[in-house]
Amino acid sequence: MKKIFITGCCGYIGSHTCVELLDAGYEIVGLDNFSNSKPSVLERIKKITGKEIKFYEGDMLDKNLLEKIFNENEINMVMDFAAFKSVGDSVSKPIEYYIDNVSSVLTLLSVMKEHNIKSLIFSSSATVYGTPEFVPITEESKTGGTTNPYGTSKLFVEQILKDLYKSDNDWKICIFRYFNPIGAHQSGLIGEEPNGKPANLMPYISMVATKELEYLSVFGDDYDTKDGTGIRDYIHVVDLARAHIKGAEKLNKEKSGLFIYNLGTGEGYSVLDMIHAFENANHVSVPYKIEARRPGDIAECFADSSKAEKELNWKATLTLEDMCKDAYNFTKNRKEK
Ligand code: UFG
To answer: Residue 322's closest CA among 236, 257, 250, 224?
Structure first.
C-alpha cells in the first residue's frame, strides 16, 4: 500500500492535514520531533478519525532516520510541514531558523532523490511576497523583499525546489503559499497550541476571551486601511488541510511539474473586524488597547486564490464565524484540561 510521508505531523497544520487525509482513506507515515507540538496529538488524531498513523519520533535533519523511514515504508509522496514559524524568533535566531527550515529540506530532498520518490507538497507562506505590490496577490506577483529570516527561509526553499525541478523534470512539486491559517478542528481536540504567550492574532484573542490574558494589544491603527488596522486573509485551518488532498490528487495525476498556489479566502479582514467577529460568534468580550505598530508588519495582505480553484477545484468554504467559534472552542477545551 502506498503511503504519504508527513513531516511535522503533530504540528498545527500537519495534524489537521493528517485528519483530512486519514478520513479520505490515505495511509500516513508521520515524523515529528515535538519541538513545537505534543505527543498527545497522535492520540487525538486517532480519536477523531479512528485511524492510526505509523509514527516516528525524530528530526528531519537526521538523515539516517529518514533513510530508515523510506526503507521501511512504501512512500509515494511527501508533505513537508516541519518548520519553525515564529517571525520574531527568526530575527534573533537566524542560524537555527536556516538550519531547521532550509538544511532539513535539503536532507529530505536528498533522501527522496536516493529513493526515487519525486513527489512533494511543500508548505510555503504568503510572507514570500514581502510587501505586496498590489492586492489581491496572485501567484505571479513579485516575491522577495522578505523582512525576516522565517520569510527568507521559505523563499530560499522555493528557489531550491525550482532549481531542483529545472535539473530533473521527473519531479512533481506543489508549493502552497498559506495566508493566515486560524481556527481549529471542530471536535476541539486539535488546534494551535503556542508555547507561552502567543505571537499571532487569533490565539491571542482566544486567550483574552478565556481571561488567560488581560487584553489584546492592537498593533497600530494608523495604516492606510479602512479602519487603520492591519488587514489579512484569514483561512480556516481545515480548509487549508483539505487543499492538500486536492494537491495530492493533482500530483498523482500529473507526470511532472512544479505548481504554485495561494491558499486564502480572498477576503481581507482588519484586526478590529476580527475582534468584533470573535465577540459576536462567541458572545464574549475581547478588551483591547491600541498600541504602536509592530516592526515588520505590512498594512494589507490578501490572496487571489482563483488559480487553486481553477486547477485544483479547491475553494475555502468555512466562514469567519466558523473560524472564530472553532478557535474559541479549542482554547476553552485546552484551558479546562
Ligand atoms: N496583531 C495585533 N496584535 C497581536 C497580534 C497580531 O494587532 O497581538 C495584528 C498584526 O499587527 C497583523 C494581524 O494582527 O496586522 C495579523 O498578525 P499575525 O501575527 O496573526 O499574522 P501575520 O500576518 O503577521 O503573520 C502570519 C504568520 C506568518 C506568515 C504570515 C503570512 O504568523 O508565519 O502570516 O502572511 F508568514
So the answer is: 236
The kind and range of the H/E element at 294 are none
- Catalytically active residues, by annotation: 150
Please, which pLDDT band fits residue 263 given cuts at 50, 70 and 90? very high
Burial class (CB in 10 A: 0-12, 13-18, 19+), 309: middle
Chain centroid offset of residue 334 CA:
20
- On the 0-12 / 13-18 / 19+ scale of CB atoms within 10 A, 1 is exposed
- Ligand 1 centroid to 226 CA: how many Å? 17
Ligand 1 atom nearest to 296, measured from its CA: 24
Q: What's the first-to-final CA gap in the chain, in angstroms?
A: 38
Query: What is the per-residue pLDDT across 48-96, written as a single tens digit (0 to 9) for each?
Result: 999 999 999 999 999 999 999 999 999 999 999 999 998 889 999 999 9
